[in-house]
């Protein structure tokens, strides 16, 4: 019998998280794949012919959600700061420079991702 590193229940939760972010991260240089009994894998920064520069494995949906949220949020902040002096700032500094309404919209967007992923199982969550 093969050893499983992720439970069937947690695998299903991870699948929902990956699906919730699939479209939003479509233009990014990453892909999240179901690796079966090994969990979920995020492959990032593809460089032909060598492959991916970054490989991350996830065994729980909360960690996967947090990581994909960070990826999405970072891309939004970089887009916002593009062609401005803010591009040299840290992500949290860029966020604080945004208008309050825009900051609030990201908090709501996080809630939308959580609802799409069925993340009632997440007890807390990181930055907006």
TrEMBL record:
<protein>
    <submittedName>
        <fullName>Uncharacterized protein</fullName>
    </submittedName>
</protein>
């Amino acid at each position: 019998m093969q050893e499983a590193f992720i439970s069937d229940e947690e695998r299903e939760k991870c699948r929902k998280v990956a699906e919730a972010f699939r479209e939003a991260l479509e233009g990014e240089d990453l892909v999240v794949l179901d690796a079966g009994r090994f969990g979920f894998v995020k492959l990032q920064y593809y460089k032909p012919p060598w492959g991916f520069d970054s490989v991350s494995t996830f065994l729980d949906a909360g960690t996967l959600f947090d990581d994909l949220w960070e990826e999405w949020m970072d891309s939004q902040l970089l887009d916002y700061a593009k062609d401005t002096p803010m591009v040299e700032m840290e992500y949290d500094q860029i966020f604080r420079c945004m208008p309050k309404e825009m900051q609030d919209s990201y908090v709501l967007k996080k809630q939308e991702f959580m609802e799409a992923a069925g993340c009632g199982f997440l007890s807390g969550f990181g930055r907006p």
